[in-house]
Known about the structure:
- It is built from 21 helices and 26 strands.
- Among the domains are: 323-533, Rossmann fold; 578-703, Sandwich (Immunoglobulin-like).
- It is of the alpha/beta class and 704 residues long.
- The strands form 8 sheets. It has a 6-stranded mixed sheet with strand order 9-14-13-12-10-11, with helices on both faces. Strands 20-19-24-25 form a 4-stranded antiparallel sheet, with no helix packed on it. The protein has a 3-stranded parallel sheet with strand order 3-5-8.
- Strand 12 (433-439), helix 17 (469-477) and strand 13 (483-488) form a beta-alpha-beta unit.
Amino acid sequence: MDREKARKRAEDIVSKMTVKEKASQLLFSSPAIPRLGIPAYNWWNEALHGIARAGTATVFPQAIALGASFDTELVWKIADAISTEGRAKYNIARKHGDRDIYKGLTFWSPNINIFRDPRWGRGQETYGEDPYLTSRLGVAFVSGLQGNGEYMKTAATAKHFAVHSGPEDLRHSFNAIASRKDMAETYLPAFKALVTEASVEAVMGAYNRVNGEACNASPHLQHILRDEWGFEGHFVSDCWALRDIHESHHITKNAAESASLALKNGCDLNCGCTYNHLLAALNKGLVTEDDITRSAVRLFTARFMLGMFDRTEWDSLGIDDVDTPEHHELALQAAAESFVLLKNNGVLPLKNIKSIAVIGPNADNRTALAGNYHGTASRYITPLEGIEDEAEKRGIKVRYSLGCPLLSHHDEPLAKEDDRFSEALEAALSSDVTILVLGLDETLEGEQPDDGNPGIGSDRKTLGLPGHQEKLLDLILSTGKPCVLVLESGSAADLLLASEKCSAILDIWYPGALGGKAVADVIFGNASPSGKLPVTFYKSLDTLPDYTDYSMKERTYRYADDASILYPFGFGLTYGRMELADVSIEECDDGFLIHASVHAASSVSEVLQVYVSDLDTPDAPKRSLKAFMRISLESGEQKACEIKLGKDAFMTADDDGIMVIAGRHFLVSVGFSQPDSISTSLMGRSPFTAELDIPLRWTAKTSL
């Protein structure tokens, strides 16, 4: 149903409500209004990488892993599968009168905040540190969730608007200071893309303030969102964030004033209970009935667009459409595409071996498969289980040892420290190769713990692996046997020692419930790792600004000194090699066209990346990703590629946050990595680069 028709129906039904009834519908747990045929509805649902917190569902790789895929088509397919399972679960719950939390069609996903600092525990929920990559994957995810049928399949939510990436323990009181330039170039582009390109139905505000204004009650942010971008959907607060306005930010004196400030500034739906005070605010003259009506109409417009009061094309979906074999295959494909091979001296894929030692706290850790905001899979396959299954087919002996727990210094409470070290050492010494699975899980990095997120790990204090994992790594390396480090985490880690001494390093993120099978497929060569880093791996935190500093200076690949970087954004090896040839760039009416030919001697999947550098503007990013294309070739296949760079690819923000073409001389690089010296050294080749002069007639500007 188109928005205009839905809005008219919403206006009609809201006009029949009392003011008390209208106000009641602005809470996330909206009560029924039987006399109008309106059932109760809980707006709160999660679908970050699969239907979450609602029982059995396909658990896809975590969002940061999807970021590493650099694959918009894959992300769309995953979101489409998620929306299918979401609709099916909604139908099942509705059939049995279950209208509880996590049973609705309004999903508070995706998280398109910028992962600007590796300490942020929720960075795993994002698509990484780059605004362009985030916008492209975010648009694909929203399009897949919402669909293109007569009715919206499910509703997506872009969160957390707009400058939000830690610290977690300060989020309820923190004031993020961001320049107009950084907001325009880094923090806002993905939100703008989801609104203007994908017509995202909802936007969620962040807990913190931005430049002094609470994100859920910000005149400035609402002006950008609704007046400049033309957002027509509904705005929802983060959970209990409106309470922070008076209790933590101290902008208002009490709940009635906070409710008034938020409602007046565009917050339609309260996840929390502050809008219970709306009638008190109305009686005090702080809000009008028209203010309440406006938000109620927006919310019912969404419900009508979702077909909640009609028969829809999605009504036949049911239990057999959840956790299907097809969705499992899609999850396995996503995992393999997301794995980033950071180092390989030739040991992978494994060949001509008789025994493998599988060691480490994440080797058989189901929790580490999922990451946070996850559902419950019908089956889990850990790296140990996947390797054992594949090794059995090949007659290969597998020896397993925990080595050490994730965090504790001993496995048994009464034992001395490192009580599993001797076992691990013997397993490694007795085997041809060791697969050492280290890292984190959601108990060690994630959202600040609260009633909805118990047992979560929050932010990290260091890039080092926790507990005695680094000590275990050193022990296994001391054997002199080949060691493959498999890193399972949602963020960057200190890999200095591993980069020097491990035979191979495979970053698998949080790979989903069946991730262990994908690990085995890649290790044994049934599949090739083809992911690229969506974040920078730094040598240490010493070169990064203070965590609370939201300036982009010295942050991410776009601004950090290359000397501080261990593994760059966009880097990732493959088993095969794709060659790039015949690259040319020609001017067209509204940009440039890049033509290139790619070919491969063996089957391989790669990500072609285009970076642009403004050579004339001192405060411009060093380089910025402006286009990418995932390409898969069979052995001997050749393909012609065409990529367009529009005028916006050459824009930077001025001090007022206006996007302009500031310089005339630009460097464009086309290849399978960034053009920096580190990537070139690690890849063993350089991208194609060319200097371009921008025509003087290009004077386009756009305001963010």
